């Protein structure tokens, strides 16, 4: 049976985040005038993350945190090879924890970026509210630890996609493009109606307005 796994807002979030992540890496490497775009992309990522956090409670069944926040016991059973049918619909336990880690480290990266200063031409909007030592710690984390952790998580994500494609003959990219999976068992479909999409768009606009207002207040 064909099941709508990823609703449109989740897919838009996923690919928008991927584009922003690439842009952030490139702009950071270029430096100079490109740092203006680095900050714009960072604020865009913050907007997307806020949107995804809210959508984790409002979205389709497989996009909700309740469907992929697995217990340690369930995750351990999955690693030992005890796989439940629904583990293969949305995020499996291992993939779910990697998604949670990715969201968490992205939030830390954005937060540290807002407190960072490259001592040349770019400084985060919150640097003037904290001490120099905090700015120094945040800058070190942002440029060294956080960056490397995110690159590691992205590489692991791509490796998992490759393993599923070549060893298990399962295309994980296609459902994230078109939304559907073909399953040999019954599973609930995510709601993905025009009403859902309008609600998601409203939430996204509200998140963007919230970030913009926050930046205006600290400017």
- Our Rg estimate from Cα atoms comes to 19 Å
Counted by DSSP, the helix tally is 8
Structure class: mainly alpha
Main sheet specs: 2 strands, antiparallel
- Number of structural units classed as domains: 1
Number of strands: 2
Q: Sum up the overall morphology in one term.
A: globular
Per CATH, the architecture is Up-down Bundle
Helix content: 55-70%
Question: What name is given to the CATH topology?
Answer: Fumarate Reductase Cytochrome B subunit
Fourth CATH level, the homologous superfamily: Transmembrane di-heme cytochromes, Chain C
Reading off the top of the CATH hierarchy, the class is best stated as: Mainly Alpha
**% residues in beta strands:** under 5%
Strand order of the largest sheet: 1-2
Report the average pLDDT across residues. 94
Measured between the Cα atoms of the first and last residue, the distance is: 53 Å
**What is the H/E string?**
EHHHHHHHEH
Explain the layout of strands and helices.
Blueprint: E1 2-4, H1 8-30, H2 35-58, H3 65-68, H4 72-79, H5 93-113, H6 132-166, H7 173-178, E2 180-182, H8 194-218
Helix pairs in contact: 1-2, 2-5, 2-8, 5-6
Structure in words:
The protein starts with a strand and ends with a helix. The chain is mostly helical. It has helices at residues 8-30, 35-58, 65-68, 72-79, 93-113, 132-166, 173-178, 194-218, and strands at 2-4, 180-182. It has a single domain (2-218), classed as Transmembrane di-heme cytochromes, Chain C (Fumarate Reductase Cytochrome B subunit, Up-down Bundle). The relative contact order is 0.18.
